[in-house]
Write a structure and sequence with these properties.
Elements (H helix, E strand, L loop, with lengths): L9 H12 L5 H14 L12 H8 L3 H14 L2 E4 L3 E4 L9 E6 L4 H12 L6 E6 L4 H11 L5 E4 L5 H7 L7 E6 L8 E5 L2 H15 L4 E5 L8 H14 L3 E4 L11 E5 L2 H14 L8 E5 L3 H5 L5 E5 L1 H14 L4 E4 L1 E4 L5
Parallel strand pairs: 3-4, 3-5, 5-6, 6-7, 7-13, 8-9, 8-10, 10-11, 11-12
Antiparallel strand pairs: 1-2, 12-14
Helix pairs in contact: 1-2, 2-4, 5-12, 8-9
Protein backbone atom coordinates (compact mmCIF):
# COMPACT_ATOMS: atom_id res chain seq x y z
CA UNK A 1 0.00 0.00 0.00
CA UNK A 2 1.38 3.39 -0.97
CA UNK A 3 1.17 6.30 1.45
CA UNK A 4 -0.65 9.29 -0.06
CA UNK A 5 1.64 12.15 -1.08
CA UNK A 6 -0.89 14.92 -0.84
CA UNK A 7 -0.48 15.28 2.92
CA UNK A 8 2.80 15.84 4.78
CA UNK A 9 2.46 13.97 8.05
CA UNK A 10 6.19 14.01 8.85
CA UNK A 11 5.97 16.59 11.72
CA UNK A 12 3.17 14.60 13.37
CA UNK A 13 4.97 11.27 13.04
CA UNK A 14 8.19 12.81 14.37
CA UNK A 15 6.35 14.13 17.42
CA UNK A 16 4.83 10.74 18.16
CA UNK A 17 8.23 9.04 17.82
CA UNK A 18 9.86 11.57 20.20
CA UNK A 19 7.16 10.91 22.78
CA UNK A 20 7.58 7.16 22.33
CA UNK A 21 11.32 7.49 22.97
CA UNK A 22 10.62 8.95 26.42
CA UNK A 23 9.27 5.57 27.62
CA UNK A 24 6.82 7.47 29.83
CA UNK A 25 3.62 7.07 27.82
CA UNK A 26 1.73 4.15 26.35
CA UNK A 27 1.64 3.96 22.56
CA UNK A 28 -1.93 5.16 22.37
CA UNK A 29 -1.08 8.09 24.70
CA UNK A 30 1.84 9.00 22.40
CA UNK A 31 -0.54 9.24 19.46
CA UNK A 32 -3.10 11.34 21.33
CA UNK A 33 -0.52 13.70 22.80
CA UNK A 34 1.37 13.90 19.50
CA UNK A 35 -1.77 15.06 17.68
CA UNK A 36 -2.60 17.59 20.43
CA UNK A 37 0.97 18.94 20.40
CA UNK A 38 0.92 19.21 16.59
CA UNK A 39 -2.31 21.21 16.80
CA UNK A 40 -0.79 23.49 19.44
CA UNK A 41 2.26 24.03 17.21
CA UNK A 42 0.05 24.86 14.19
CA UNK A 43 1.41 21.83 12.33
CA UNK A 44 -2.17 20.56 12.14
CA UNK A 45 -4.77 23.21 11.45
CA UNK A 46 -8.55 22.98 11.66
CA UNK A 47 -9.90 20.94 8.68
CA UNK A 48 -6.54 19.20 8.23
CA UNK A 49 -6.78 15.45 7.73
CA UNK A 50 -5.03 12.87 9.87
CA UNK A 51 -3.35 9.73 8.53
CA UNK A 52 -5.69 6.81 8.15
CA UNK A 53 -5.31 3.89 10.55
CA UNK A 54 -3.76 1.83 7.75
CA UNK A 55 -1.22 4.54 6.98
CA UNK A 56 -0.42 5.01 10.67
CA UNK A 57 0.33 1.30 10.91
CA UNK A 58 2.83 1.74 8.05
CA UNK A 59 4.38 4.81 9.65
CA UNK A 60 4.71 3.50 13.21
CA UNK A 61 3.98 -0.23 13.24
CA UNK A 62 1.57 -0.18 16.18
CA UNK A 63 -1.42 -2.48 16.41
CA UNK A 64 -4.59 -1.39 14.59
CA UNK A 65 -6.57 -1.20 17.82
CA UNK A 66 -3.96 1.18 19.31
CA UNK A 67 -4.62 3.75 16.58
CA UNK A 68 -8.37 3.17 16.67
CA UNK A 69 -8.42 3.77 20.45
CA UNK A 70 -6.27 6.93 20.10
CA UNK A 71 -8.56 8.36 17.45
CA UNK A 72 -11.61 7.57 19.59
CA UNK A 73 -10.00 9.47 22.47
CA UNK A 74 -9.30 12.45 20.20
CA UNK A 75 -12.90 12.42 19.03
CA UNK A 76 -14.08 12.34 22.65
CA UNK A 77 -11.70 15.23 23.36
CA UNK A 78 -13.58 17.25 20.76
CA UNK A 79 -10.65 18.08 18.50
CA UNK A 80 -11.04 15.32 15.85
CA UNK A 81 -14.02 14.14 13.87
CA UNK A 82 -14.55 11.02 11.75
CA UNK A 83 -16.20 11.73 8.42
CA UNK A 84 -17.81 8.67 6.88
CA UNK A 85 -15.51 7.10 4.26
CA UNK A 86 -13.34 10.23 4.17
CA UNK A 87 -11.18 9.69 7.24
CA UNK A 88 -10.30 11.70 10.34
CA UNK A 89 -10.11 15.50 10.42
CA UNK A 90 -9.13 18.20 12.92
CA UNK A 91 -12.28 20.13 13.85
CA UNK A 92 -11.03 22.25 16.78
CA UNK A 93 -7.77 23.76 17.97
CA UNK A 94 -9.01 23.90 21.58
CA UNK A 95 -6.63 21.41 23.20
CA UNK A 96 -6.99 23.00 26.64
CA UNK A 97 -10.23 21.31 27.69
CA UNK A 98 -8.58 19.50 30.62
CA UNK A 99 -5.92 21.77 32.06
CA UNK A 100 -3.07 20.10 33.92
CA UNK A 101 -0.03 22.24 34.74
CA UNK A 102 3.50 21.09 35.57
CA UNK A 103 5.65 23.61 37.47
CA UNK A 104 9.37 22.78 37.49
CA UNK A 105 11.41 24.89 39.94
CA UNK A 106 14.95 24.95 41.33
CA UNK A 107 14.07 24.07 44.92
CA UNK A 108 11.49 24.83 47.56
CA UNK A 109 11.86 28.18 49.31
CA UNK A 110 9.51 30.73 50.81
CA UNK A 111 9.66 33.01 47.76
CA UNK A 112 8.93 30.04 45.46
CA UNK A 113 5.96 29.26 47.68
CA UNK A 114 4.73 32.81 47.04
CA UNK A 115 5.00 32.22 43.28
CA UNK A 116 3.10 28.92 43.38
CA UNK A 117 0.43 30.23 45.78
CA UNK A 118 -0.23 33.20 43.48
CA UNK A 119 -0.37 30.90 40.46
CA UNK A 120 -2.95 28.65 42.09
CA UNK A 121 -4.97 31.58 43.43
CA UNK A 122 -5.41 32.91 39.89
CA UNK A 123 -6.44 29.61 38.30
CA UNK A 124 -9.86 27.92 38.42
CA UNK A 125 -10.16 25.08 40.94
CA UNK A 126 -10.50 22.48 38.18
CA UNK A 127 -6.97 23.24 36.90
CA UNK A 128 -4.50 20.92 38.63
CA UNK A 129 -0.94 22.05 39.41
CA UNK A 130 1.89 19.60 40.10
CA UNK A 131 5.29 20.71 41.48
CA UNK A 132 8.71 19.31 40.62
CA UNK A 133 12.19 20.42 41.80
CA UNK A 134 15.39 19.86 39.81
CA UNK A 135 17.91 21.48 42.24
CA UNK A 136 19.96 22.79 39.28
CA UNK A 137 20.95 19.18 38.54
CA UNK A 138 20.77 18.29 34.84
CA UNK A 139 20.32 14.58 35.46
CA UNK A 140 17.36 15.31 37.73
CA UNK A 141 16.02 17.82 35.19
CA UNK A 142 16.11 15.24 32.40
CA UNK A 143 14.55 12.59 34.61
CA UNK A 144 11.66 14.90 35.47
CA UNK A 145 10.96 15.62 31.81
CA UNK A 146 11.18 11.97 30.83
CA UNK A 147 8.42 11.33 33.35
CA UNK A 148 6.15 14.32 32.67
CA UNK A 149 6.51 15.22 29.00
CA UNK A 150 3.27 14.62 27.15
CA UNK A 151 1.21 14.36 30.33
CA UNK A 152 0.49 18.08 30.88
CA UNK A 153 -1.25 20.83 28.94
CA UNK A 154 1.17 23.53 30.15
CA UNK A 155 4.75 23.45 31.44
CA UNK A 156 6.03 26.31 33.63
CA UNK A 157 9.77 25.92 34.01
CA UNK A 158 12.63 27.61 35.86
CA UNK A 159 15.36 26.36 33.51
CA UNK A 160 18.94 25.22 33.84
CA UNK A 161 21.08 27.44 31.65
CA UNK A 162 22.88 25.01 29.35
CA UNK A 163 22.57 23.52 25.87
CA UNK A 164 20.99 20.15 26.86
CA UNK A 165 18.32 22.04 28.80
CA UNK A 166 17.59 24.24 25.79
CA UNK A 167 17.28 21.24 23.48
CA UNK A 168 14.95 19.47 25.87
CA UNK A 169 12.72 22.51 26.38
CA UNK A 170 12.52 23.21 22.65
CA UNK A 171 10.90 19.79 22.20
CA UNK A 172 7.80 21.25 23.89
CA UNK A 173 5.44 23.30 21.67
CA UNK A 174 5.92 27.00 22.41
CA UNK A 175 2.21 27.44 23.15
CA UNK A 176 2.56 24.98 26.05
CA UNK A 177 5.80 26.27 27.63
CA UNK A 178 6.48 29.29 29.82
CA UNK A 179 10.02 29.99 31.09
CA UNK A 180 10.01 31.68 34.50
CA UNK A 181 12.49 33.11 36.99
CA UNK A 182 15.72 32.79 34.94
CA UNK A 183 15.85 34.25 31.45
CA UNK A 184 16.59 31.53 28.91
CA UNK A 185 15.70 32.73 25.44
CA UNK A 186 14.63 29.69 23.41
CA UNK A 187 13.66 31.69 20.34
CA UNK A 188 11.15 34.24 19.16
CA UNK A 189 8.16 31.93 19.52
CA UNK A 190 8.78 31.02 23.18
CA UNK A 191 7.42 32.98 26.14
CA UNK A 192 9.10 33.96 29.40
CA UNK A 193 8.35 35.89 32.60
CA UNK A 194 11.75 36.28 34.21
CA UNK A 195 14.00 38.48 36.30
CA UNK A 196 17.18 40.27 35.27
CA UNK A 197 20.16 40.06 37.61
CA UNK A 198 23.29 41.99 36.64
CA UNK A 199 22.05 45.50 35.83
CA UNK A 200 19.39 45.47 38.57
CA UNK A 201 21.84 44.19 41.22
CA UNK A 202 24.36 46.89 40.33
CA UNK A 203 21.65 49.55 40.65
CA UNK A 204 20.73 48.20 44.11
CA UNK A 205 24.35 48.47 45.28
CA UNK A 206 24.46 52.04 44.01
CA UNK A 207 21.29 52.86 45.94
CA UNK A 208 22.83 51.38 49.09
CA UNK A 209 26.22 53.04 48.60
CA UNK A 210 25.67 55.74 51.29
CA UNK A 211 25.24 52.91 53.83
CA UNK A 212 27.76 50.47 52.38
CA UNK A 213 30.68 52.93 52.47
CA UNK A 214 30.65 53.03 56.27
CA UNK A 215 31.77 49.38 56.47
CA UNK A 216 35.46 48.48 56.40
CA UNK A 217 34.88 45.32 54.34
CA UNK A 218 32.05 43.72 52.31
CA UNK A 219 31.89 39.92 52.12
CA UNK A 220 29.68 38.18 49.56
CA UNK A 221 29.06 34.47 50.15
CA UNK A 222 28.69 32.98 46.68
CA UNK A 223 28.72 29.36 45.53
CA UNK A 224 30.09 28.75 42.05
CA UNK A 225 28.40 26.19 39.80
CA UNK A 226 25.09 26.34 41.65
CA UNK A 227 21.72 27.92 40.95
CA UNK A 228 23.02 31.23 42.31
CA UNK A 229 23.25 33.66 39.34
CA UNK A 230 26.73 34.58 38.14
CA UNK A 231 25.32 37.94 37.07
CA UNK A 232 24.96 38.95 40.74
CA UNK A 233 28.63 38.16 41.32
CA UNK A 234 29.57 40.22 38.25
CA UNK A 235 27.55 43.20 39.51
CA UNK A 236 29.14 42.93 42.97
CA UNK A 237 32.70 42.97 41.60
CA UNK A 238 31.89 45.81 39.21
CA UNK A 239 30.48 47.88 42.09
CA UNK A 240 33.52 47.29 44.30
CA UNK A 241 35.85 48.37 41.52
CA UNK A 242 33.98 51.51 40.48
CA UNK A 243 33.34 52.82 44.00
CA UNK A 244 36.70 51.62 45.40
CA UNK A 245 34.99 49.60 48.13
CA UNK A 246 37.03 46.98 49.96
CA UNK A 247 35.35 43.61 49.59
CA UNK A 248 35.73 40.02 48.44
CA UNK A 249 33.89 36.77 47.76
CA UNK A 250 33.86 33.74 50.07
CA UNK A 251 32.42 30.33 49.20
CA UNK A 252 30.29 30.03 52.31
CA UNK A 253 29.71 31.27 55.83
CA UNK A 254 31.12 29.37 58.81
CA UNK A 255 29.67 29.81 62.27
CA UNK A 256 31.66 32.19 64.44
CA UNK A 257 33.37 34.18 61.68
CA UNK A 258 31.22 37.32 61.73
CA UNK A 259 33.06 40.49 62.73
CA UNK A 260 31.93 43.95 63.70
CA UNK A 261 32.40 46.74 61.16
CA UNK A 262 31.76 44.48 58.17
CA UNK A 263 28.85 43.99 55.78
CA UNK A 264 27.81 40.45 54.80
CA UNK A 265 25.77 39.58 51.73
CA UNK A 266 24.21 36.15 51.12
CA UNK A 267 21.78 34.65 48.63
CA UNK A 268 21.37 31.43 50.61
CA UNK A 269 18.53 31.59 53.18
CA UNK A 270 19.76 28.85 55.56
CA UNK A 271 23.07 30.73 55.69
CA UNK A 272 21.25 33.99 56.44
CA UNK A 273 19.41 32.47 59.39
CA UNK A 274 22.64 31.03 60.85
CA UNK A 275 24.23 34.46 60.57
CA UNK A 276 21.28 36.09 62.33
CA UNK A 277 21.54 33.47 65.09
CA UNK A 278 25.20 34.42 65.65
CA UNK A 279 24.35 38.13 65.71
CA UNK A 280 21.67 37.46 68.35
CA UNK A 281 24.03 35.33 70.45
CA UNK A 282 26.67 38.07 70.47
CA UNK A 283 24.17 40.81 71.25
CA UNK A 284 25.11 42.92 68.24
CA UNK A 285 22.87 45.46 66.52
CA UNK A 286 22.34 45.09 62.79
CA UNK A 287 23.04 48.31 60.92
CA UNK A 288 25.33 49.53 63.73
CA UNK A 289 27.79 46.81 64.74
CA UNK A 290 27.68 45.08 61.35
CA UNK A 291 25.45 44.79 58.30
CA UNK A 292 23.61 41.98 56.52
CA UNK A 293 22.13 42.08 53.03
CA UNK A 294 19.96 39.32 51.58
CA UNK A 295 18.53 38.39 48.19
CA UNK A 296 14.87 37.44 47.52
CA UNK A 297 12.40 39.03 49.88
CA UNK A 298 9.68 37.30 51.89
CA UNK A 299 7.43 38.00 54.88
CA UNK A 300 9.93 36.50 57.34
CA UNK A 301 12.64 38.95 56.28
CA UNK A 302 10.27 41.85 56.81
CA UNK A 303 9.99 41.14 60.52
CA UNK A 304 12.95 39.04 61.68
CA UNK A 305 15.72 40.91 63.56
CA UNK A 306 13.94 44.21 63.03
CA UNK A 307 13.82 43.75 59.25
CA UNK A 308 16.44 42.49 56.79
CA UNK A 309 17.43 44.65 53.83
CA UNK A 310 16.75 42.72 50.64
CA UNK A 311 16.46 43.16 46.91
CA UNK A 312 14.10 40.97 44.98
CA UNK A 313 11.85 40.56 42.02
CA UNK A 314 8.12 40.10 42.64
CA UNK A 315 7.48 36.37 42.71
CA UNK A 316 3.84 37.19 43.25
CA UNK A 317 3.84 38.98 39.89
CA UNK A 318 5.55 36.02 38.21
CA UNK A 319 2.85 33.73 39.62
CA UNK A 320 0.06 35.99 38.34
CA UNK A 321 1.57 36.20 34.87
CA UNK A 322 2.09 32.43 34.79
CA UNK A 323 -1.60 31.89 35.58
CA UNK A 324 -2.52 34.30 32.81
CA UNK A 325 -0.41 32.29 30.36
CA UNK A 326 -2.10 29.05 31.41
CA UNK A 327 -5.55 30.51 30.83
CA UNK A 328 -4.96 32.62 27.71
CA UNK A 329 -1.88 31.05 26.08
CA UNK A 330 -0.93 34.52 24.89
CA UNK A 331 2.67 35.09 23.84
CA UNK A 332 4.63 37.04 26.47
CA UNK A 333 8.21 38.20 26.98
CA UNK A 334 8.41 40.02 30.32
CA UNK A 335 11.20 41.05 32.66
CA UNK A 336 9.75 41.59 36.14
CA UNK A 337 11.53 44.51 37.88
CA UNK A 338 13.81 44.08 40.88
CA UNK A 339 13.17 46.33 43.87
CA UNK A 340 15.14 47.22 46.99
CA UNK A 341 13.57 46.84 50.44
CA UNK A 342 15.86 49.12 52.50
CA UNK A 343 15.37 48.07 56.12
CA UNK A 344 17.46 48.19 59.30
CA UNK A 345 20.10 45.53 58.66
CA UNK A 346 22.52 47.55 56.50
Amino acid sequence: MKIPKEENFTPLIDRIKRLEALNALSKHECIVQGVLDAIDANELEVHASLPSVNNMIQYLGYARETFAKAYRDLIAHGVVESKNRKGYFVVSNNTQMKQKVAVVLYAYDTFQDTLVSELRANLPEEVSVDLFFHHNNMETFEDIFNRIQGRYTVYIVAPIENKPSIQLLQSIPSSKLLIIDRLLDLGEEYSYVAQEFEKSTYQVFEQLYPKIKKYEDVIFYFREHTAEPNEIKNAFLKFLKKYKIKGHIEKQYHAGELQQGKLYFTIHNPELYQMLKEVLQKGWELGDDLGILSHNDDVIKEIISGGITTFSTSFSEIGKEAAKFVLDREFVKMIVPTTLADRNSV
